[in-house]
């Protein structure tokens, strides 16, 4: 005899003699197994609910008894409803009404003024959720009658709500903006933490909808110093409203206001140029875009393809693997885009400003700050007097290659020396930049076998006045970056040996000529393997013979390009 189906765990089959003891004949589980009818199940469920109800009643009676024994007021006990579990058919709303209101409990200790302010705040939040601007205006008027002023968060809510409403409501928004400006001048605005940017964003969004771009810029300037978000918000709001002329006006303002736009924002501006049939503007925007954004996401590339095709230009995605940058579609070579002389001068000026700021920060050690400034000036003077190097080596980056200084591993002077000798053997003049801390006695005591190598490196540093310049508080990145920018300006092309390409640098220092390296272990010797830069720049660029023809690289794969130069 086989038992099968749901009578057995996991659907297994057992002979009667093999049944587990739990399912053996005579066991209480087996006796009642499969005999429950729907009516019996319903009865058991009802009995279970009744037991819970009785238990709740007993607990409530015991609680009341304890309170009476402690001498508590019986009136409070009688007024407290007995908590019972909800049954089928019970009025849920009546039970909810009997529960104590948590909000009322919270407001019990507040003053009348604070309680009213909270009520208004809750009502405005409700209007925000329901997108009901007219109701929100009524609440604001009620607040004014009771001499309550809006705080920054509430103003931000109102401006965002007004911006999403129709034109009929914009007049109320303009009145509110005038009132806000008046309160700001009179310093009546209630300040709350972290709401200033939200308020500014709401104002910019509202003013962009109504076409009041100057008011938006003025208000933002008074309230928030950061400029990136301002241009982004205004451009995206105008893109949503299809106000293309306004968007391009904002773009022009953003250029004068020093706003760094994002990839998405440039694309919106380009689409605005297409919609207004002002295609000449597209190339102005692309030239500004190429200075900030080097490679593009696939979605942006697809959109740019559609933009160029709308101007009757042929575009095609292609692969460029040629070391000279030969494009198989347009049959032209990509070019190398170096920093212009103006950009190099700006980069040099930036280094000097950074050093000056550091020296100013050392208030308690003014002499040290003066010494640092003097040391850096000495290094610059040496660069002016000396013959320009062909190669600048970031010594620390080379010396720590494949090592873990955070785990106590020491800099490898041998690796630095091998890079230096590699260039000397090829008749190229290297300039080594290393911090003086790498040549202290404590740093050298664990490297006695590299003493002769260290001596050669020290001689190089002394020749470049690096020994006295690289004091403890100095940053060696300043020296090799400054030297790279200065020598590129004077000589035109100088290589920088470092795997640290400072990709987060404001001036996109990756436009300098970087040489990456690694050490190939063969036959017990560690030889440097250097990767010199290609003959073309991996960044969006116009064609040399036609500024209306462009190539755009993909950010996901270096060999993928969009050719709009066919």
From TrEMBL:
Reaction catalysed by this enzyme: Endonucleolytic cleavage of RNA, removing 5'-extranucleotides from tRNA precursor
Domain PRORP: 324-558
Record's keyword terms, sorted: Hydrolase, Magnesium, Metal-binding, Mitochondrion, Nuclease, Repeat, Transit peptide, tRNA processing, Zinc
Enzyme Commission number, as recorded: 3.1.26.5
Domain spans labelled PROP1-like PPR: 113-310
Cellular component, GO annotation: mitochondrion
Principal EC category: hydrolase
Transmembrane segments: none
GO terms for biological process, alphabetical: tRNA 5'-leader removal
Entry-linked Pfam families: PPR_long, PRORP
GO molecular function: metal ion binding; ribonuclease P activity
KW Membrane (keyword) present: no
Cofactor: Mg(2+)
Localization per record: Mitochondrion
UniProt superkingdom: Eukaryota
Primary location: mitochondrion
Statement: the UniProt record of this protein carries the keyword Mitochondrion: yes
Biased composition (Basic and acidic residues): 1-19, 37-90
Family: Belongs to the PPR family. P subfamily.
Protein name per its UniProtKB record: ribonuclease P
Organism: Guillardia theta (strain CCMP2712)
């Amino acid at each position: 005899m086989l038992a099968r189906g749901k009578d057995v765990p996991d659907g297994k089959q057992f002979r009667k003699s093999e049944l587990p003891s739990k399912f053996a004949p005579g066991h209480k589980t087996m006796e009642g197994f499969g005999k429950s009818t729907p009516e019996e199940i319903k009865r058991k469920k009802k009995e279970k609910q009744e037991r819970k109800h009785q238990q709740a009643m007993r607990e409530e009676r015991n609680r009341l008894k304890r309170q009476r024994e402690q001498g508590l007021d019986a009136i409070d006990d009688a007024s407290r409803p007995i908590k019972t579990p909800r049954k089928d058919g019970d009025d849920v709303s009546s039970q909810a009404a009997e529960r104590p209101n948590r909000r009322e409990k919270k407001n019990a200790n507040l003053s009348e003024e604070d309680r009213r302010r909270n009520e208004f705040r809750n009502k405005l939040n409700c209007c925000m959720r329901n997108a009901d601007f007219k109701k929100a205006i009524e609440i604001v008027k009620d607040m004014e009658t009771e001499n309550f002023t809006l705080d920054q968060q509430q103003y931000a809510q109102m401006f965002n709500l007004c911006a999403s409403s129709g034109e009929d409501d914009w007049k109320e928004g303009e009145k509110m903006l005038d009132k806000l400006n008046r309160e700001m001048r009179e310093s009546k605005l209630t300040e709350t933490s972290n709401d200033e940017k939200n308020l500014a964003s709401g104002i910019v969004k509202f003013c962009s909808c109504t076409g009041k771009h100057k008011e938006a810029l003025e208000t933002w300037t008074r309230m928030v110093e950061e400029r990136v978000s301002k241009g982004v918000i205004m451009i995206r709001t105008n893109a949503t409203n299809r106000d293309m002329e306004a968007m391009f006006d904002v773009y022009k303002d953003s250029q004068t206001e020093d706003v760094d736009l994002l990839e998405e924002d440039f694309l919106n501006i380009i689409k605005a140029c297409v919609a207004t049939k002002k295609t000449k503007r597209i190339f102005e925007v692309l030239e500004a875009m190429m200075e900030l954004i080097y490679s593009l996401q696939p979605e942006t590339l697809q959109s740019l393809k559609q933009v160029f095709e709308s101007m009757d230009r042929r575009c095609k995605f292609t692969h460029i693997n040629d070391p000279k940058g030969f494009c198989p579609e347009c049959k032209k070579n990509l070019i190398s885009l170096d920093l212009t002389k103006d950009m190099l001068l700006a980069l040099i000026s930036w280094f000097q400003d950074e050093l000056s700021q550091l020296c100013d920060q050392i208030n308690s050690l003014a002499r040290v700050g003066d010494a640092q400034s003097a040391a850096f000036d000495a290094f610059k003077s040496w660069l002016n007097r000396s013959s320009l190097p062909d190669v600048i080596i970031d010594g620390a980056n080379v010396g720590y290659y494949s090592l873990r200084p955070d785990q106590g591993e020491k800099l490898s002077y041998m690796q630095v020396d091998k890079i230096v000798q590699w260039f000397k053997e090829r008749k190229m003049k290297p300039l080594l930049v290393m911090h003086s801390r790498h040549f202290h006695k404590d740093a050298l005591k664990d490297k006695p076998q590299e003493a002769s190598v260290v001596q050669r490196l020290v001689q190089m540093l002394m020749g470049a006045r690096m020994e006295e310049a690289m004091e403890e508080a100095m940053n060696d990145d300043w020296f090799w970056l400054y030297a790279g920018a200065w020598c590129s300006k004077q000589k035109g092309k100088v290589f920088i040996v470092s795997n640290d390409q400072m990709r987060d640098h404001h001036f996109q220092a990756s436009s300098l000529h970087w040489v990456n390296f690694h050490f190939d272990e063969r036959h017990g010797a560690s030889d440097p393997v250097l990767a010199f830069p290609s003959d073309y720049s991996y960044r969006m660029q116009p064609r040399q013979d036609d500024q209306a023809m462009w190539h755009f690289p993909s950010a996901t794969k270096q060999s993928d390009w969009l050719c709009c130069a066919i």
